[in-house]
């Protein structure tokens, strides 16, 4: 039987103040992150931006390496990244570290997201995030840094090259900012929650504006918003500011299928969508944020 989500109370108005992101006195758990940067073998990716765009369209926030491999042939079963991970345990320990270093900040977000879901999902199991650069072997196949962040249900890992956040800004026009990063991390852990609940449709939900793939991704957006609604309660973050919320919403809109297709292809084709439109991604993140209730994230029966 799949784990159950407990009923969550509706949230009142979020208190906004201007402070550093992480609460004073916060202790990080770097054990939830593996740092494999610089440990994998570099893979050649042909086609310049065109090759990256193909991968981004398939993978951005929720696809799987196998899907990208089908279209590009870039991913294979060659083993890389099997050396011992780097050790962040001495470098990422406190709120000061999280507020001053990009990698430590991501650790803080991972800690907060998992602290929330541990309390809400019966039988929740911790899933590590793996930092990597160039290429890495995963339970779902070989991945390159062009793939973008993804969750692999075969090994229960979230994988991310931190350079992705720069790409989001420079190539896709996102505003960026720390809470744009938080949205991405929380979205990927939304897929882990779906995996535990038995609803994950990554790579198997077809394409189209109302496909299972789109509904799966929109639910992960909603779960991301639910975490943001409860982020302060996890003890890691200070109350969210309007600017931080705006960063997350901007990131959600930036990675809408319609916006990516318009930017990379000059036209929009809803029949090929796998993640949903910019408006839908914003709407479902906002639904999670406003309700604070994962039970409000039933994208599978909703009218899109």
3D structure, described in words:
- The structure is a single chain.
- The protein has helices spanning 48-59, 65-72, 95-100, 102-120, 164-170, 178-197, 212-230, 242-254, 257-265, 278-291; strands at 33-35, 129-131, 135-138, 141-144, 150-152, 157-160.
- The chain is an alpha/beta fold and 304 residues long.
- The protein has one domain.
- Strands 1-2-6-5 form a four-stranded mixed β-sheet, with helices on one face. It has a two-stranded antiparallel sheet with strand order 3-4.
- A hairpin with a 4-residue loop joins strand 5 (150-152) and strand 6 (157-160).
- The radius of gyration is 18 Å and the shape is globular.
- 51% of the residues are buried.
The gist of it:
The chain is of the alpha/beta class and 304 residues long. It has helices spanning 48-59, 65-72, 95-100, 102-120, 164-170, 178-197, 212-230, 242-254, 257-265, 278-291, and strands spanning 33-35, 129-131, 135-138, 141-144, 150-152, 157-160.
